[in-house]
Write a structure and sequence with these properties.
The protein contains seven helices and twelve strands. The mean pLDDT is about 85. The relative contact order is 0.13. The termini are far apart. It is α+β, with helices and mostly antiparallel strands and about 325 residues long. Helix 1 packs antiparallel against helix 7. Among the domains are: about 120 residues, 2-Layer Sandwich (Beta-Lactamase), CATH 3.30.450.20; about 100 residues, Beta-Lactamase.
Length: about 325
Amino acid sequence: MGTESDTTTPRPVGPPTETDARMHRRMRILGFLFMALFLVVPLTAGLVVYLYGPEVERDAYANLESIARMKVEQLENWLHERDSDAEVLREDHALAVTVDDWAHGRADVPEQVAVQARLAIQRRQYHLSSVMVLTPELRPLLSIGNETAVDTQTNLLAQGPDAFRVHRSPLYRMEDGRPGMQWLVPLVRREGGVEKIAGFIVLRVNAHDFVYPLVQTWPTASPSGETLLVRRVGDEVEFINELRHRRGSALKLSFGLNTTSLPAAEAVRSPVPGIIEGLDYRKVAVLAAYRPVRGTDWRVVTKIDHDEILGPLYRLA
């Protein structure tokens, strides 16, 4: 009696059916579709950036130039106002007579009090950190405010040419370490056709009270937008104001004038406004515009990160 074999006889494979052929075609089509999508997405992203990137950058440069122009106008107006205040004091002959009499012990107390009251009002109105009245020898007669000493900058201004005109200092670190500026105003007494220096008034400003806040504010919401105030010092470009991304850098941070692609360096090398794409003090790619401040050695630089400008395009793509 025979036994049934445990080995299964292989089933012969016949030719592909129509169903198999259709399935194969579908798989090939799906493969092509996935490959096309894999290629099309980056190509589309690149095309979007290629088509719209230059326009977005042009708009960004126009905005940066507008902000730079606004900041420069504000600084120039403020400097002009302080210069005008100093000129008004210089032309005040009655004030010169009183200070001259005061220096020689001839002014009575009411006259001294009147001078003090007037200068105290001016200090508050114009946000001055201090006002001082000095003799022709720079001996203090009156001090109102935070700084009460004649510093090195005052002596330098007094030694300058044409003692009869107002002298404005550069922005410098005052004796207490704070950044500031001062105006040395000669008080001219005229008698019998003869002019003489009756004394001086020193007007001092703290940069943190006006200059820095004006420079550092950005008119729109931006995580990277920043305004710089820079100047040339020898073979270097010096950053005058506090920086958004590096605290404690005012009048301390500097780079070589020939630093490659540094917008601040390009700004101080150029006597005219301009735009540039480069690397800022953080070595981050930025778009920047720059503009000189009339009557100073300052340059205003407005900049924004390149990634912030093109980021929306990349996300859209």
